[in-house]
Amino acid sequence: MRVIVTKDRAAMGAWVAEHAAADLRAAIESHGEARLIIATGSSQFEVLQALAARTDVDWSAVTGFHLDEYIGISQSHPASFCRYLRERFVSKLPLKQFYYLDGEGDARATIASVGAKLTAAPIDVALVGIGENGHLAFNDPPADFETDEPYIRVELDEPCRLQQVGEGWFAGLGDVPTHAISMSIRQIMKTRTIYCSVPDERKAAAVRATLEDEISPQIPASVLRNHGQVTLIVDRAAASQISPATQATVEMV
Q1: Whole-number percent of the chain with pLDDT over 90
Q2: Are 63 and 35 in contact (CB under 8 A)?
Q3: What is the pLDDT of residue 41?
Q4: How do the domains of the chain map onto residue ranges?
Q5: pLDDT tens digit string along 203-219?
Q6: Is residue 168's pLDDT more than 90?
Q7: Contact 184, 152 (CB under 8 A)
Q8: Dihedral-angle region of residue 132 (phi above 0 means left; psi in -120 to 50 means alpha; beta otherwise)
Q9: Can you name the residues that pair with 155 across neighbouring β-strands?
Q10: What is the spatial distance between Cα 138 and Cα 37, in angstroms, rounded to a whole number?
Q11: N- or C-end of the chain: fewer Cβ atoms within 10 A?
């Protein structure tokens, strides 16, 4: 796993946007289109802002896919990931297509319909993050490393739900949905190139565990170390707990 440490969140977003844009251009040149998975949450603010500003990508050749979504909240809710993606990315670009996960409707039908679109062709780039509990998408520990289903219905653990409160998406724990639709671990790992962006000191323990602990469903993001083309991009605060041995292997930009 390549590890990049940036001075701050803005530098992290700029680095990811530059490299993801290059991969999207290469995919379009190679096979006429690019397919992109997009995460949400506060960790992606600067990434999506910088990527949406890129004018060196033919966005009309890019199809996007939604990584995860709460079950049971409307698309007008402030915490809706559909709303987040529409306002921060999709509405700003002339994408070929974007496939949302509808958390309001029949979750089973959404999983089937969007999953079929997702698996119709390879995915070129995934933009993901890591939760405070080490989750990847909404695959909380212990994550299912075995299912081949592209999307699954998951139960959110309390640390995950508390993170959503702490980030200001919900007023209290009781307001946070208990279930969600999430892209599966195996489906994420099928992506050609993965960029995992993780800012802030509150995620430093999860970053250290992802890099240094045993690869395990108890640390879902640790599975990224098995991918041949993944870059973990963190700011200095998120890198604050990694060991000296790991620090010696990272790239400072």
Answers
A1: 94
A2: yes
A3: 87
A4: 12-191
A5: 999 999 999 999 999 99
A6: no
A7: yes
A8: alpha
A9: 179
A10: 14
A11: C
